[in-house]
Amino acid sequence: MERCKVSGEEIISNPCWAYNNHASHYSTRIKRIGRNILYIRVDAEEPVRLEEFELNLVMKVLEDSGLKGKPFHVIWNLEKVKKIAYSYKHGIVNFLYNIQPPLNSVVFFNVAPEFVTTAESIRSIFPSTMHLYLTESYAAAIQKTLNHSSGKNPQTDHTENNEFEHLKNQFLRASAMIGWLKMLGQKIHLPPADHELYPFFSALSFLQEDIATQENNHEKKKRELELFYEEKARAMDAEISAFENNQRQLHREFEKEQSGLINTLALRKNESITISASLQNRNLALHSLSLEMSRLSLSPEQKRQLLTLSETLLETHRNERQIGLPLTETDSILLSLLKRKYPHLNNRELKICLLIKQNYDNNDIADQYGISKRGMESLRYRMHKKISLNKNQSLKNHLAALAVEAQALA
Question: Which of 19, 92, 342, 377 would you label with 286, given CA atoms 20 to 30 Å apart?
Answer without folding.
Answer: 342
